[in-house]
Amino acid sequence: MDVIEVFKHYCWYMLDYKSSIVIILPVKLYIAYVKGSLSTIKSTMELPSHAICTQFSFKQLICLFCFICMFSLSSFKSDSAALVTASPVNESDRFALLAIKSQIPDDPLGALTLWNDSLHHCNWQGITCSRRHRERVTVLDLQNKELGGTVSPYIGNLTFLKEITLTKNNFHGEIPKEIGRLFRLQKLHLDNNSFEGEIPSNITYCSDLRQINLVDNKLSGSIFAGISSLSKLLILSLAKNNFSGRIPPSLGNLTSLTDLSLAYNHLEGNIPDDLCSIRSLSFFQIGINNLTGKIPSCLFNYSSMYRFACTGNRLEGSLPPNIGLTLPNLKNMFLGGNKFSGHIPVSLSNATRLEVFDIALNAFTGSVPSDLGKLQALRWLGFGVNQIGTQQGGDDLNFINSLTNCSNLEYLDFSENVLKGPLPDSISNLSTTIRLLNMQQNSIYGSIPVGIGNLVNIEKISFYINNFSGAIPTSIGKLNQLRELYLGKNLLSGQIPSSLGNLTQLTTLSLSENNLSGSIPPTLGNCQNLEQLDLSANNLVGTIPKQVVSISSLSTGLFLSQNSLTGSLPLEVGNLTNIMELVISDNQLSGHIPKLLGDCLNLNLLYMDGNFLEGEIPKSLITLKGLVSLDISRNKLSGKIPKYFEQFPNLNYLNLSFNLLEGQVPLNGVFANASFVSVDGNPNLCGGIEGLKLSPCIQKETKKKTSLSFKVIIPIIVGSVCLLLSLLFFLVVCRKKVLNKAQSSTTFSNIPSYMRVSYMELLRATNGFSVDYLIGVGSYGSVFKGILQDINQTVAVKVINLQQEGASKSFITECNALRHLRHRNLLKIKTACSSVDLLGNDFRALVFEFMPYGSLEEWLHPRVNGQQHGPRNLSFIQRLNIAIDVASALEYLHHRCQPCVVHCDLKPSNVLLDEDMTARVADFGIAKLFSAASYDSAQSQPSSEVIRGSIGYVAPEYGMGVKVSMQGDVFSYGILLLEMFTRKRPTDDMFLNGLSLHNYAEMALPNQVMGIVDPLVVLLEDTNEISNIVEQNNTRARLEECLVSAITLGVTCSAEVPAERMTMSVVVSELLHIKKHYQTIFRSISE
């Protein structure tokens, strides 16, 4: 082998072992040799002192060079062949990267497309290699690539890694424990993914770690105390996970820490005093947990602190009087939603870098410091929902004079306090940067300053519930950026300024409950972005302008009640196609109800009571099937009550009282419950259910003579028909076996509204019932996602496992139950297939519409390896809507269909969610069908049937031989409702020794409910804590009322004694009442 080649390989070999003299000297000699010049060789020998330990003569160095070459020859002689073919490339890192790629099946942006042999792995996207240690990967950066999959354990083979950044992807599964092998790792950024499980304990071996960012994942368990051994750690961000337990006191050992973020978890207990050891802390964020006690005083003494966020806990105590001096670098302070008390420290004005100060939703008292104008950087000042104010003098709002010096001020909120006095004219001199001004629910009096029109960039003004008087300034019409204006519940007088029509960006205008007079200005019709208009409870006169009811953007509602409006409701009301609530009660409106009102398809509340409307109720209102509440009482309406009201599935309040209606009151739908309907004051009505207490309708008898021939003909015809039916029945029985084996006969094929589908079509639709199309597996079969190619429609195919005992019966039961059911909250069946497969075996399948958001089970308890269809955080209103949907479905099954149906297996996995998050009840495989008579008879007989239902959800009386009943479904629903709001299964390990989900919830009522509900119920989707305060403003205390009502309902429904449970009709009514209360609260907050 050539000497130079051997020497070259020798150098590569020694490079791996980090030699000093033996690296530098031979390499430079080799380069000089190649150049072929003794002078070059000589110059090469002139090495810096750090490269060699001893100064050699030129001859000595030449001898050394020859010695090394000879040594290399002798050392590699036996392996010369191997050296010729050897490569300096380090394959272990490349193999590890390919293993990592193999676990990432989802790569929509093609970030890993070039991770192959066409490029050296150091040139792959997201990869950085070391300059010193060739081929060794030091950085893995794949942030924001929409990658989906798991992180391979082979990541532990990349032992030279210093940085891992997988931010903003869709990784799931556990964080591999092999990360503990990366002892050189300095940065670990896995934020904004769906990692689950706990933090690996052997992360402590990564002793060089400086940054850990695991924000916005699904990690759980307690915070690993071993993290405290990572002495070099600077940043620890664990926010937006499911961590529970206490903050480990050992975190105080991280004395180099600058950033600590533990917000949006389920942490409890006190903030440990041990954190006082972290004197370098500058970013401290622990908001939205269940922390209690006082904040250690040392945390207010860290001069480097610039962000201090404790929003949404149960912390108490007061702010140190010298806080402005001890936190001179403070920029953001969030203390909202706690139990803090005391005064706002006067020294706060010394924190001259302060940009955001938010202490809303606490119990602060006293006055607002008058020198906050020193805070030149202040953008955000929020102290709403406290007890701030003196209520003695009239100068509580003088602090506003100082705020005119805050040239960056954008947000000013001092709503729901006890501030008293006039609004200073200096409000007009606030910075033009201000976007929100909220002072609702105080005791502010006097007029609204005219100069308020100077705040040209303001977007929201709320003076709601005060004592303002005088006229509404016309200058408000100059505020072109204004989106929300709330002046309701004051003492304002005069006319509504026509200049308000200039506010083309306006979405909400509330002037209700004042003393406004005059007519409604037609110029309001220019506000084409208006979503809510509330002019109710004033002294307005004249007609309703057609321009106002032509604002097609009105969606939340139009409220004109309690005025003196006259004339008819304009025909243009049909333009309000998006409106949900229309209230024109207690006016002097006349004429007929416009037929075009039927075009308002989104209406769910329509109140026109207390007017002089006449004529019949239009047939066109049949299209308003979304109505929940309808009140047209105290008018002069005549004619009969339309039977189409029976078909309105959600209608639970119908007031027709004190009109001139006549005829028979319908019996079904909303009319089946006397508590939902009022028909008093209509003397010509009759019939109806007994609860309405109306006189029975008198049937007019006709006295016609019946001829003898007619009496003879009827028996002959009846006899012939009976004979013919008997013959047909005989033929059907004889052909039953043949029909059962028909190649593509369907259980629903004789019903024209159902499609026909064959086995082969289903086989193609599911790619041969491929496991890749499998959605789930149940007791009697498997469900596949399929695409029916002929109609290009995605469906769910439930294939019955006929080898399973009871499966065939389940199929028949489900077919019988579903073929006649029609309700928006029941899973819609497309068709059924009863055929044979390719091997001649019997085949049974049901075809349903496909539910893209899966089951409620997947949202409450996501699977480790399940597909994620979006965020798994369900808000309160989402859960409440799902609860209403499920209750409405059960109410329909129990009370509105014949035969009535008892589901028998209600649980989260049988509640599916469509693309609008509307719930659909599914799986009627063990349902029981009853006629009214058979149901009553069944309840009086003991049962020997096997218990129906799933463990935890099945009614306790079923275990004692009681027959299947509607009350059993109510019990299951109650458990489901409790599970939805606590996120605890009835089979949770904590429910032992007599403790159940039912009595766990019952014991928490009413004062401890917030301690058992899923904390995610009260969290906002927006992680920005500023938005949290703006959007909610009055959250925990008021939301608790709705949660207490929901938990109470769940406890009542799951009562052990069946007679103590509600009917589903009552449940629906109660839930709608909770929803109405919730919407009322948050409407008032937004105002």
From TrEMBL:
Protein topology in the membrane: Single-pass membrane protein; Single-pass type I membrane protein
Binding-site positions, ATP: 798
Localisation per UniProt entry: Cell membrane; Membrane
Reactions performed catalytically: L-threonyl-[protein] + ATP = O-phospho-L-threonyl-[protein] + ADP + H(+); L-seryl-[protein] + ATP = O-phospho-L-seryl-[protein] + ADP + H(+)
Main location: membrane
Alphabetical keyword list: ATP-binding, Cell membrane, Glycoprotein, Kinase, Leucine-rich repeat, Membrane, Nucleotide-binding, Phosphoprotein, Receptor, Repeat, Serine/threonine-protein kinase, Signal, Transferase, Transmembrane, Transmembrane helix
Every Protein kinase domain range: 769-1082
Transmembrane segments: 712-734
A Gene Ontology term for the protein's cellular component: plasma membrane
Gene3D superfamilies assigned to the protein according to its UniProt record, in alphabetical order: Phosphorylase Kinase, domain 1, Ribonuclease Inhibitor, Transferase(Phosphotransferase) domain 1
GO molecular function, one term: protein serine/threonine kinase activity
Family, similarity comment: Belongs to the protein kinase superfamily. Ser/Thr protein kinase family.
PANTHER family per the UniProt record, alphabetical: LEUCINE RICH REPEAT FAMILY PROTEIN, EXPRESSED (PTHR48053), LEUCINE-RICH REPEAT PROTEIN KINASE FAMILY PROTEIN (PTHR48053:SF37)
Name of the protein described by the UniProt record: non-specific serine/threonine protein kinase
Organism: Aquilegia coerulea (Rocky mountain columbine)
